[in-house]
Amino acid sequence: MQSFGCRATQADGAALERQLATRGLAAADSALNADVVVLNTCTVTAAADQDARAAIRRIHRENPHAKIMVTGCYAQRAPQEIAALSGVTWVVGNSHKHQVAEVVAAGARQDDLTPFSHARDFVPLESVALSAPAFTLVGDIFAHTELIAAPVFAGESVAEKTRPNLKVQDGCDNRCSFCIIPSVRGQSRSMKLDRVISEANALVAAGYREIVLSGINLGRWGRDFQPQQRFEQLVHALLEHTDIEKIRISSVEPMDWSDDLIALVAGSPRIAGHAHVPLQSGSDRILRRMHRKYRPWHYVEKIRKIREAMPAGAIGADVMVGFPGETEELFEESRSFIEQLPFTYLHVFTYSSRPGTPSASMLDQVPVHAARERNRILRELAAEKNLAFRRKFVGQRLEVITLHAGDEDSTEALSDNYLKVRVTGRHSANQILSVKIIEVGNEALVAVAQNEAVAHVV
Questions:
Q1: Per DSSP, what are the bridge partners of residue 433?
Q2: pTM recorded for the entire structure
Q3: How do residues 162-220 score in pLDDT, each as one tens digit?
Q4: Of 23, 91, 313, 419, which has the fewest CB atoms closer than 10 Å, so is most exposed?
């Protein structure tokens, strides 16, 4: 099993592993030794598609007898393109991802649809490509109501699993002009509150200290319920009904950083001091062309409120360069806007045209060399901001969670405010420590442990 892309895709992959295991399929140690290889794909950029195709070719070359199942976002967007690739046995879109284990266990062939004609929650197919080399099962994603997910862990081994990502929302009702995700993941849908609490309590019982809440459009959690609920209600419930020591919130759109949510994150020691607020561009003209739902001045207001509430908190953003129509003047407008805000890190992306999105047919596409240069400029600006932020903590105490078992010299950890830290000495994984920062390293702060563990009062 291999998953590509975002936290949500990783959570989908973990759920698929659960389903496959319940049908008696044991995980192989590598694709070389597998009878079946499941590839859970991303399609947010052209590079993501290329990565999936390269993986298919490599696996088929190295293990030609293995059956390859391709699912996920790329499978939903371009099933026949994938089905035509040598070595692919099955293509199952996100619309039928909940049936992946059923397909694999039944050993479906391109001429055998019988196991699925009466499948539970079956969605009428848009296409079943019987003429293609692979069996293809793809339907209307907007008729899809399933939300499958399982925690995804940061550790590299069973003994070192830390910081599980818990996906509580899927799909998106926004229609950004550059984004293919609504077309491959469907409408926004939320995990029921009682199930979120149950999953979180199971993680606590298993010994995990920090969980990361994730979703495709996380801040929209609960809006599909009747009556509607708000994301901050979910966070309140996790604080009240679980003993999890640390909750980290992943990306939340600017519109959903309500005053209540900001106050909640800033006011609880059990919530990581960390706000990721997607920006995409600091140019009003580009934001309008992107069909984003906020203006630069709205964004500034949110960031200033977050910084006032969390003076030492991490504030990050996604930023896109090279969007169609982004002239040098508009890029400079965006760069200047970013420079003035108190970001502690940035995720900088170069625009990638996606077939079927409005931006793909826009005029004034930006030359690749210009977009790459803009990417470099913003990455350098982000590095400067991150270094300045890290320097503020020399001599101060931070709370960290160890990510892996350390060696004799040091242990890798992550601070409450999203800074990489190397703690001197050997420490086991999944420990929450209070440390003192002694210097700024090339990529991480260097710290010494002040005590062996930190316990939060629930």
A1: 400
A2: 0.86
A3: 888 899 999 999 999 999 999 999 999 999 999 999 999 999 999 999 999 999 999 99
A4: 23
CA–CA gap between residue 212 and residue 446 (Å, rounded) = 24
Which residues have CB under 8 Å from 188's CB, separation 6+? 169, 170, 171, 172, 173, 216, 217, 220, 223, 224
Residue type, 157: S
CA distance 141 to 446: 47
What does the block give as tokens for 43? 């399609």
Q: Report the side by side order of strands in the sheet with 345-350.
A: 274-276, 314-321, 345-350
* Residue found under tokens 């929450």: 432
Separation CA 262–CA 393 (nearest Å): 23
Helix (H, G, I), strand (E, B) or coil at 375: helix
* CA atoms lying within 13 Å on the CB side of residue 388: 11
Strands (E), 95-184: 125-127, 135-139, 165-170
Question: Which sign does the torsion angle of CA 301, 374, 219, 344 carry?
Answer: negative
Q: Tell me which residue of 395, 391, 428 sits closest to 411, measured CA to CA.
A: 428
Whole-angstrom Cα distance, residue 190 to residue 222? 6
Amino acid (1-letter code) at residue 192 = K
Both structure tokens of 89? 């046995």
Query: What is the rounded CA–CA span in Å between residue 20 and residue 17?
Result: 5
Q: Of 397, 399, 446, nearest to 424 (Cα)?
A: 446
In percent, the amount of the chain with pLDDT more than 90 equals: 70
Give the tens place of pLDDT for each residue, 97-129: 888 888 888 774 444 443 333 333 333 334 444
Domains of the chain: 2-139 (3.40.50), 151-272 (3.30.750.210), 397-449 (2.40.50.140)
